[in-house]
Amino acid sequence: MSVEKVTALKAPDERPRPGRQEAEEAVRTLLAYFGEDPLREGLVDTPRRFVDAYEEFLSGYAEDPVAILSRTFEEVDGYNDIVLMKNIRLESHCEHHIQPIIGVAHVAYLPSDRVVGISKLARVVDAYARRLQSQETLTSQIATAIETALAPRGVAVRIEAEHQCISTRGVRKTDVACVTQTLTGVFHADPQMEARFYRLIGV
Ligand SMILES: Nc1nc2c(ncn2[C@@H]2O[C@H](COP(=O)(O)OP(=O)(O)OP(=O)(O)O)[C@@H](O)[C@H]2O)c(=O)[nH]1
Ligand SMILES: [Zn+2]
């Protein structure tokens, strides 16, 4: 197996990482590449700020979404219907251009024997969104984490988002939403459940 292939198979936390100084130096290189003077007053601290900002944007790599969903509750007095968090603000970055993806996520599940604290559904969205993503992968990862952690009767995740790599550069189309969804279990198998999900989120 080639060296590249072995590297590609390593888990993210096992991959050798450059240090902070190297990261800031890379930003200085980019500034110089674009014709700027990285040492002028307004830019001298920019590499530090840039790396700080992207550590925040990409902080999801340090999170374990299944662990976020590990605290569950069984005492729901027979509650037996859909749980939906709709209009969760979504902020991510596309893996192709490292440009913002801004939109909303709707996350629903039909519990089997346990429910999760509802804030945790939004935390799972953030844990995956704060990574370099394609919208399809992001949608699927959120659904899979809920499936894995809660073993519910079904999961429905829908994301509607604008990609700034499409609105501010390249093809430059504004007010265009990319819509993706993953439906599992009853939401996939039962058209009435699928339709209820759409009605609840106002589609
Ligand atoms: N499927 C998918 N594509 C995405 C996503 N975010 C960005 N893209 C697309 O990724 C593609 C990358 O295409 P390339 O031809 O390699 O890159 P490019 O030359 O910058 O393409 P243009 O954006 O068309 O200028 C573009 O079509 C983007 O619109 C996403 O979340 N999912
Ligand atoms: Zn992009």
From TrEMBL:
The protein's Enzyme Commission number: 3.5.4.16
Q: What class of enzyme is it?
A: hydrolase
Pathway(s) the chain acts in: Cofactor biosynthesis; 7,8-dihydroneopterin triphosphate biosynthesis; 7,8-dihydroneopterin triphosphate from GTP: step 1/1
One term of GO molecular function? GTP binding
Q: What domain of life is recorded for the organism?
A: Bacteria
- Cellular component GO terms, alphabetical: cytoplasm
Could you state one GO biological process linked to this protein? one-carbon metabolic process
Q: Which residues form the GTP cyclohydrolase I domain?
A: 24-201
Which reaction(s) does its UniProt entry say it catalyses?
GTP + H2O = 7,8-dihydroneopterin 3'-triphosphate + formate + H(+)
- Keywords from the UniProt entry: GTP-binding, Hydrolase, Metal-binding, Nucleotide-binding, One-carbon metabolism, Zinc
Pfam families membership = GTP_cyclohydroI
PROSITE patterns referenced in this protein's UniProt entry, alphabetically = GTP_CYCLOHYDROL_1_1
User: What does the entry list as the binding residues for Zn(2+)?
Assistant: 94, 97, 165
Q: Where is the composition biased (Basic and acidic residues)?
A: 11-22
- Region (Disordered): which ranges? 1-22
The subunit structure is: Toroid-shaped homodecamer, composed of two pentamers of five dimers. Homopolymer.
> Hey, which family's this protein in?
Belongs to the GTP cyclohydrolase I family.
* Entry-linked PANTHER family: GTP CYCLOHYDROLASE 1, GTP CYCLOHYDROLASE I
Task: Give the protein name, as stated in the record.
Answer: GTP cyclohydrolase 1
Q: Which species does the entry assign this protein to?
A: Amphiplicatus metriothermophilus
